[in-house]
Amino acid sequence: MNDMTFHAETRAPIPQSTAVICSRCVARNACLPSGIGTLDILRLDKLVGYRRRLARDEVLFRKDQPFAMIYAVRFGHLKSSRPDHRGHPHVTGFYMAGELLGLDAIYAGRHACTTVALEDSEVCEIPYSRFQESMHESLPLMQRFHAALSHEIVREQNALLHADMSGAERLATLLLDLSARYAERGYSGRRFRLRMSRADMGNYLGLTIESISRLLGRFRDEHWIALDKREIELLDPGRLEALLSAAPGEPGVSHEEE
Amino acid sequence: MNDMTFHAETRAPIPQSTAVICSRCVARNACLPSGIGTLDILRLDKLVGYRRRLARDEVLFRKDQPFAMIYAVRFGHLKSSRPDHRGHPHVTGFYMAGELLGLDAIYAGRHACTTVALEDSEVCEIPYSRFQESMHESLPLMQRFHAALSHEIVREQNALLHADMSGAERLATLLLDLSARYAERGYSGRRFRLRMSRADMGNYLGLTIESISRLLGRFRDEHWIALDKREIELLDPGRLEALLSAAPGEPGVSHEEE
DNA sequence: CGCTTACTTGAGAGACTTCAAGAGTTGTGG
DNA sequence: CCACAACTCTTGAAGTCTCTCAAGTAAGCG
Q1: Does A164 sit within 8 Å of B206, measured CB to CB?
Q2: pLDDT at A250 > cutoff 50
C-alpha cells in the first residue's frame, strides 16, 4: 500500500537535477525504454540527462508556456487540467510512473494544459529538439514514440466514452482504470491509494464532489469496495466491471456497427 | 452550400484506386502537406500513390482490423465509433477533408475504432511502413506527423471538456467546432450542412436524439440558428459562444489553476 | 489546540431521459 | 409517377438522476 510513497523532509528547496539511467529505472517497463533495444536505451540515457523533483502542488508546466521538453514520470503522481469554456479548470488526466507528459504541446508549440504534482514526485526532462534528432537517427525510437502518442489518443478516447455513462459507471471506470495501471506496474491492483481529492475525481469525471462522496459511500455499503480516507480496496472488482458491461435489461454482447 | 457534395450515379461498384498529387489536392492546406517544403511534398506524392472511394455507409476500416494504412480525407465526411462498455457503438469523432484517420491504431497495431463514410467520400491511402521510412529520411515530415498526432490529442481533450457541460453547451460546441473547421478549409462557417444524423450528434455528445431535436428547436426559436433539415445557418454565432463563455452568474474570465 | 481544508450527508430543484405517439422524408417497386 | 414502407425527426408527459444549497463532521496543518 505504501508502495510508491516518497518522503520529503523539506518541501520548498529540493535538489533540482541529477543524472539518471533509464535501464535501471523502476518505471522503465511502462516508459519509453519499453520494447526497444539496448542500444536505443543508451541513446535515451544520453538524452535524458536530468530529472526534476516536484513537491506536492508544484506546477511542472503551465498552459500556454512555450514547449521545450516532454517529461516522463519517474515516481509520484500528477494531474493535468485545462480551463473549460467557462474558464474553470477541468482535470483532463492523472499520470503515474512511466507515463509521458507534454505530448499535447507538440501541435501548437505551447502547452495545452497545466500539470501539477499530486504528491512529491520526480520526472525526467527530455529536450524535445534533441529527442527529435535521436528519433531521426533511430527508427525504433521513432516507432516507440509514435506508439506512445497513439496510446495517448486511445486513452483520451476511452475517457470520451464517459459521455453517456451514469455516475456510478464513470466512477467504476476510473477505479478500474487506476487498478489496471497499478497492476501493469507491478503494484497491487486491488489495494491502492487514491492520490487525488474527491474534487479532482469529480472534476475529471464530470460529477460533483457530493456525487463522488455518495457513490463511494454506496459502493462501500454494497461491499464492492473498502474505503478508509483515500485508501481503497476493490473487494469485488467483478461487480464494478458488471456495472459497465451490462445495462439494465441489456445483455453484454458486443455488437458494434452504426 | 453544395460545396463539397459528390454525386455518384452508382453506389455499389466504384473505381477503387487512382493516382493522386498532393500539391494539387484541394485539402492540402488542412492535410499533411501543410507547412512542409516542396521536396517533402513530392516525397508524400510518391508515398500516397492511391486513393479510395467510399459510398455512403461504406466501412473504411473496422475496429480490431490489423493496422496497415493511415488515411487522409480527400473529400466527403466520415465518422468513427467504438463500442462503449455496454457494447453499444459510441461516436468518437467526425472527420472532413484533410484530416487523418487511423492514428489510434498505431499503438496496438489494430484499429481502435470503426470508421464509415457519412456520404460518398474519398480518402488517400498511406502505407504506414513506407510512411515510417519516409519520416526516417525526412525530419520535417516526421515533425509534421508528430504535430498531427499531437493535434489529435488536443482535439480529444477538447471533446473531453463536454463532461460537465449542459446539453445546450455541448450542442453549441459541436456547431461552432464544425463551423470553425469549415472556415479553416475555405468554406462558409456560417452556412453548412450537417452531414450526420441527429442520432449521431446525440451519440457523440452523450445526449439522446430527442434532446438534440429539442435543443435545435430551441436554438431556432431563439433565432440563433436557421434550420432546414440538415442545412444550418448560424444566425448569431456570438450567442452560441456566449453560451459557453459565461455561465449563469459567472463572468467569462479565464482564471485557471487548480 | 484552533483554524482551514476535505469529506459526508440531507432535502429540494432542475435537466435530461424514457416512453409514446405522430409528422415529415426518402427510397423503392409496381 | 405514385403509393407504400422504412427511416428520421419532432413533440409531449412522466420519471430519474445529478446538481444545488446547506449543514455538519472529520482530518490535516500551523
Answers
A1: yes
A2: no
